[in-house]
Amino acid sequence: PSNTRALTGVDPQAQRLHQQAQKPLLDHYRRRSAEGAHRWVLTNFPCPALAQEADMSLREFEAFVYAATFVDQPDPIAAWQAMHDRQQRLVDWLAGKSEVIVRGPDVDLRLSIAGRTFINSDGKRNMPSGEIFTGPVEESVEGWIRFRYPAIRGGREVEGVEFTFAQGRVVAAKAAKNEAYLLSQLDSDPGARYLGEFAIGTNDRIQRFTKNILFDEKIGGTIHIALGAGYPETGSRNDSSIHWDFICDMRRDSEIWVDGELFYKDGRFMIA
Fold first, then answer.
1. Domain that holds residue 108
2. How many domains does the chain have?
3. Tens of pLDDT, residues 165-197
4. In angstroms, rounded to a whole number, what is the distance separating the alpha carbons of residues 245 and 242?
């Protein structure tokens, strides 16, 4: 892009109408992707606008992108295969599990993954990649979460976001900046207040926030949740015209418990 904030002045209601008009196409796209009928990959080319958004010079941002995508490694393909193997062990361990509890300075959440599938995101559809994700049982999410990283959407930067969930639904939401825009998006449709995704970022070569979700959701030592549409391949049934990711740092005094077993602590996986 030449300007990452080109949509900042667009009426949120107009953005909602645009999202709703696109929804049938996005539903078809997600369904074909889940079935394996549609091959795609998303990436970014280093450019001045993205570098500026990330508070880097273009040269710095180029180096950041090349490190995040492993192309600075002697054998990038082997590096991605190693990530696939590490993540597949986690995905295999999570298969058949039911309850997830996430606790830390900024989070106290409980959710169910019963009957849901974790996906190994290993560079085939996002480049860079480095996450495992699923769609939680829609009505299962309970608790509270706060995001110290801003959430970027529609040319707007929403800061200081906090959500409270009850029976899966966001029942309270606030933000220190652009709260009205946040609430307008949550009111897009009934599914916009339910989670379509719960994920853990695993790419330790991404440690810097860039205001670009392709990179930021992969930051090693973070989790992210997405309000709105889920991915059919995970078993998610949540339907919405939005899919908005929010990132929570888990690198300090934070834990994830799965079926009573410590799975993750302070940004590191605890299982063999």
1. 12-269
2. 1
3. 999 999 999 999 999 999 999 999 999 999 999
4. 10
